[in-house]
Amino acid sequence: MNNFKQEDFRGYKLSTVPEIDKRLAQTNSKTPCGEYLRRYWHPVALTSEVSEIPKEIRILGEDLVIFKSTKGKIGLVHKACPHRRASMAYGKTEDEGIRCCYHGWLFSTNGEILETPGENIDSKQAKKLRDTFKLGAYPVIEFNGLVFSYLGPMEKIPEFPHYDSFEIPGNISSPYRIDYNCNWIQVLDAIMDPLHTSFLHGQSSGIQFSEGFAEVGEIDFFERGIQYLGCNTRRINDNVWVRVNELILPNFTQAGAAFAADGTKSKYFGRSSFTRWVVPVDDHHCVALAWANFGDRGDPIEYNNQEGYERIEAGEISNRTQEEKQKNPGDAEAVEGMGSISSHKGEHLMPTDKGVMIYRRRIRKLSKDLEEGKDPPQPQKVKGQVVRTNGQDTILKAPKKNNNDKEYVKSICSSVMNMQFNLEDMPLKERDKSIINNLQEMEARGNFE
After folding, report:
1. 8 A C-beta contact, residue 334 and residue 193
2. DSSP 49
3. Per residue in 346-405, pLDDT tens?
4. Which residues contact 196 (CB under 8 A, 6 or more apart)?
5. Fewer CB within 10 A of the end CB, N or C, for the chain?
6. In the predicted model, is pLDDT for residue 207 greater than 80?
């Protein structure tokens, strides 16, 4: 005899595992999202990982080999030699490129077959192959400790985007990588979920950054072309802290500082703790390749080390016991705990998930547009223009005015963001100074309209 009520326990009715969102989650070649992603430049490795010893990597489900020739030129090529499919990871680097270990074929960094030494020098078949065929290779650009590549059709290659975060005076930017054992969308979602910082980083796991993170603020979102901004605006005593998470499609992300802001002191347009890309390795793994930013407008220099990068990235260090992870989970545990590919169809999205909903919807739309022959938009609005970004912290002294403080806090966020947007077309140096001056004037006047 038992007193269990049928309506209280629904395990059996909910035991079927929901489906994944294939259009977002599948990123191999010839999948809709995989083809969409291949229309952009992505970081694929740290410069420090690339040497004259070839390194096998996987990006967008494709097995590749990255290497540096003995003259210092970086190559990114298909893993399989086109002769007999031997792995180029065992190739030997030379001045002009990489030589297959199996039969000595030599390939340049752009895939050209330079030598087929085992074949007769007069062989017409070998000459024809050298003239007409190439090892699969992709163009690369090395920039400030990261190696970027474009894996799409060469007739559609875009210019390499230059973001304003690349040149913030006084900043020290240190490259890092963090590997995740899950689908890329699960990691990318977190940047458009500003509410999670209050719980995961401030309540569920204790204080991972500062006490101010534990405050549940007012949530707002801004969609501007392919830029998405999620704001968590917190009341900290007499201050209002506007913290802005940023996504520029398909996978460029920024936020506020991790350790340099706690809501207790005024701060004007402080910049992101990281400048980061979330890159699919395959459907079950991804990698965050990024710079951690240190300086007056970034994080404190004492975090410029591997442990600091891991804490900035995920709230906790990577190398912990399972018990430690369960007691104090960080971003990695939250997103990897969903499984290697989350069952998206089982989600129950709420109004605070608006940012997640709108950016996912846009990627679905852009991938469908590409299938219909329409090229996706690039980050830069004008060719050659530096891309303006808005990931930041601003903390202003703004005591409560009335009982409706929530609306007051939200209005301050809107005023701060709209002011920045209005100054977007200014030259970079003037824009930053003008934003900071305007914020200081708003605070001094006590008028945030």
Report:
1. no
2. G
3. 888 999 999 999 999 999 999 999 999 999 999 998 888 999 999 999 999 999 988 899
4. 190, 334
5. N
6. no
Domains of the chain listed by start with CATH number: 41-156 (2.102.10.10), 164-445 (3.90.380.10)
HSE-up of 153 (CA within 13 Å, CB side)? 7
Nearest to 98 by CA among 82, 84, 114, 86: 114
The residue assigned the tokens 């399989």 is 80
User: How many whole angstroms separate alpha carbon 287 and alpha carbon 176?
Assistant: 10
- Report the DSSP beta bridge partners of residue 67: 75
Structural tokens at position 436: 């900071």
Cα–Cα distance measured from residue 315 to residue 272, given in angstroms and rounded to the nearest whole number: 15
- Answer whether 202's CB lies under 8 Å from 215's CB: yes
Instruction: State pLDDT tens for residues 96-152.
Output: 999 999 999 999 999 999 999 999 988 999 999 899 999 999 999 999 999 999 999
CB 140 within 8 A of CB 149: yes
Task: Give the residue carrying structure tokens 């004492």.
Answer: 302
What is d(CA 50, CA 70) in angstroms, rounded to the nearest whole number? 12
Give 25's DSSP letter: H
Dihedral over alpha carbons 302, 305, 311, 312 (to 10 degrees): 80
Q: How far, in Å, CA of 230 to CA of 213, rounded?
A: 15
Region 319-343: what's the mean pLDDT? Answer: 92
Nearest Cα neighbor of 81 from 52, 57, 116 is: 116
Whole-angstrom distance, CA of residue 444 vs CA of residue 213: 25
pLDDT at 227 over 80: yes
* φ/ψ of residue 172, rounded to 5: -110, 120
Answer for the pair 213, 202: CB distance below 8 angstroms, yes or no.
yes
Helix or strand run (H / E) with residue 105: none
The closest of 104, 34, 48, 49 to 280, measured between CA atoms, is 34
| Percent of the chain predicted with pLDDT > 90 | 79
HSE, side-chain direction, 13 A CA sphere, residue 384: 0
The answer to whether 149 touches 137, Cβ cutoff 8 Å, is no
What one-character-per-residue DSSP string does 367-424 give?
Answer: HHHHHTTPPPPPS-SSTTPPBP---EEEEEE----SS-HHHHHHHHHHHHHHHHHHTT
Q: Facing residues of 75 across strands?
A: 67
Query: 33 with 43: CB under 8 angstroms?
Result: no
CA Rg, the chain, in Å?
25
pLDDT value of position 336:
95
Question: Three-class SS string for 150-165?
Answer: ECCCHHHCCCCCCEHH
Question: How many CA atoms lie less than 13 Å away from 370 in the CB half-sphere?
Answer: 24
